[in-house]
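Final report, closing paragraph on structural work. Over the funding period we assembled a curated collection of sequence-structure pairs, and we close with a single example.
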Amino acid sequence: MDYGIQMYSVRDITGADLRGALKKIADIGYKYIEFAGFFGHTAQEVKSWLDEYGLKISGTHTGLRELENDFEGTLAYHKAIGNPAFIIPGHDLSSQKKLDEFVEKINFYAPKLEKEGIRIGYHNHSHEFRPNADGSVIHEQLVYRTNLMFEIDTFWYYNATGASAVPLLERLGDRIIGCIHIKDGFRGGEGMPLGCGQAPVREVYDYCRSKGILMVVESESLRPDGITEAKICYDYLRAQE
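Its predicted structure, as stored:
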């Protein structure tokens, strides 16, 4: 089995040494990288490091504003690094008005990216599954008002609902962008390395393995540091095989 990691997990070192962080991740055994920023490095540098360490890119976490501010430049960068999935890591969708504006923008940009071979997706936290103050429900509207793909963060779904994300993944079917975030933690929002919390991680693991969905680790607590947590998570995943 091959696994991926969201580089936010090792944010304590990426800003100062992105290349070194990629090498350490590869040395642990991860095969896929999901970027959370490029820290001023050129697309050519990033692509060369991926090639050097035998890594593949599964996607990026990149805000919608990057498309709004410089669509052509952003598109060129992501094509140059071979990014298949432009994943929005979150957005202020706290009212129906903001949701309407976001939906309009997504429906404008999605076909442009898809034409260039890049899927556009959305990464959830917990609030997307709870009603806003005006009653609007973010996730529900994104499903039926857009063609967005979804990168389900299974811990944040568990945090919001107390339930396993597996039924949600089944319902979304081919709207899953090809990967999910596998994460552990406690209800209330405290994230933990895999195997150290109460989220139904094994159920998620079994489902994703049966469906061929790439599991991307995101471990956020930096206790004692990102690389140590990344190794704990990788070892947990290997132990499930």
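The radius of gyration is 17 Å. Residues 4-239 form a domain with the TIM Barrel fold (CATH 3.20.20.150). We thank the funder for supporting this effort.
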